[in-house]
């Protein structure tokens, strides 16, 4: 699932709301709050990670599917 999709953003917002709720009910130092905020942090880290990776071109995808293609061999060093 793309982190830019509406579904992912919706799930992230739900996770944040849940973490706030658990923190309010159990306390900021509770294990439950820590787990809830860890889930939020993992989701945010995935957003950051996916935005740092350069998008693959169609040529790159072609070379991954066809590693012995002559077009790709010309660029090997």
SSE layout:
Elements: H1 6-26, H2 31-52, H3 58-65, H4 70-73
Shape: rod-shaped
Structural class: mainly alpha
> Which strand-content bin applies to the residues?
under 5%
Rg calculated over all Cα atoms: 20 Å
* Major sheet attributes: none
Mean pLDDT: 88
* Unreliable runs: none
Q: Please, how many domains? A: 1
What does this structure look like?
The mean pLDDT is 88. By secondary structure, the chain is an all-alpha fold. It has one domain (6-73). The protein is built from four helices and no strands. The chain has helices spanning 6-26, 31-52, 58-65, 70-73. Helix 1 runs antiparallel to helix 2. It is 71% helix and 0% strand. Pfam families: CP12. This is CP12 domain-containing protein.
